[in-house]
Recover the amino acids of this structure.
């Protein structure tokens, strides 16, 4: 896949690898993800720590990669904005997001498969992609 930036390719690889690992984890141990949601529900400090971390990752991604020139760059940029918004919501109003998280534990295997497939796509797109500048 052609993109305008080498950074897009490297971020796609990193995001893809993360999603592959999350997908494998979800398939290997669904009860662990339910336990994570239970822990978040029981610990406001954990929610704040997670929200801060996700917010910082999102802000960093948006600052270094807000590129809207090709499909892969758009996907990478959207992931950055989603992380920023998710982190902000976890810091400001975590309740609705945690309720959605609890609801989604009903479909852990489906989410894990989606994460695994999207991760494979992003990782392979980053690994085999080519950065070009067309003028």
């Amino acid at each position: 896949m052609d993109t305008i930036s080498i950074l897009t390719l490297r971020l796609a690889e990193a995001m893809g690898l993360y999603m592959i690992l999350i997908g494998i984890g979800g398939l290997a141990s669904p009860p662990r993800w339910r336990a994570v949601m239970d822990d978040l529900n029981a610990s406001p400090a954990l929610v704040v720590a997670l929200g801060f971390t996700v917010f910082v990752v999102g802000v960093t991604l948006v600052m270094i990669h807000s590129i809207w020139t090709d499909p892969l760059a758009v996907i990478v940029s959207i992931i950055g904005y989603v992380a920023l918004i998710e982190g902000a919501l976890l810091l400001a109003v975590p309740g609705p997001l945690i309720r959605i998280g609890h609801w989604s534990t009903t479909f852990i295997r489906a989410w894990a498969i989606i994460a695994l497939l999207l991760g494979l796509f992003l990782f392979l797109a980053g690994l085999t992609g080519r950065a070009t500048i067309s003028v």
User: Anything to note?
Assistant: Strands lie at 2-3, 130-131. Helices lie at 6-28, 30-42, 44-64, 71-92, 94-104, 108-128. DSSP finds six helices and two strands in the chain. The first helix runs from residue 6 to 28.
